[in-house]
Specification:
single chain, 109 residues, 91% helix, rod-shaped
């Protein structure tokens, strides 16, 4: 009887140990799986953030290039306009001076 009790207790102890071992294995695998998925999620988030940050900075760069080209175009056309004004004023001044000059009589045309 005592021997059977001892062997029975050994059997239950081994069953408990086996259960604890497999339970530990299961929970450990769950934990590692959750860590892996979390790391994958964070990696994808970091990639997405970097992608959108790159897109944003690239759009800022292209926008700055666009504004720079607009500023250059504005300056170019402003220069053209002011230059034409200056040449027009020179032309009108020249003709005003020429029209007020007295031509001596008998000067051939």
């Amino acid at each position: 009887w005592f021997a059977s009790q001892w062997f029975e207790s050994q059997w239950f102890a081994s069953q408990r140990f086996a259960f604890q071992w497999f339970a530990f294995q299961w929970f450990a695998s769950q934990w590692f799986a959750s860590q892996w998925f979390a790391s994958q999620w964070f990696a994808s988030q970091r990639f997405a953030f970097q992608w959108f940050a790159f897109q944003w900075f690239a759009s800022q760069w292209f926008a700055s290039q666009w504004f720079a080209s607009q500023r250059f175009a504005f300056q170019w056309f402003a220069f053209q306009w002011f230059a034409s004004q200056w040449f027009a004023s020179q032309w009108f001044a020249f003709h005003r001076v020429m029209s007020t000059k007295s031509v001596p009589p008998g000067t051939p045309p």
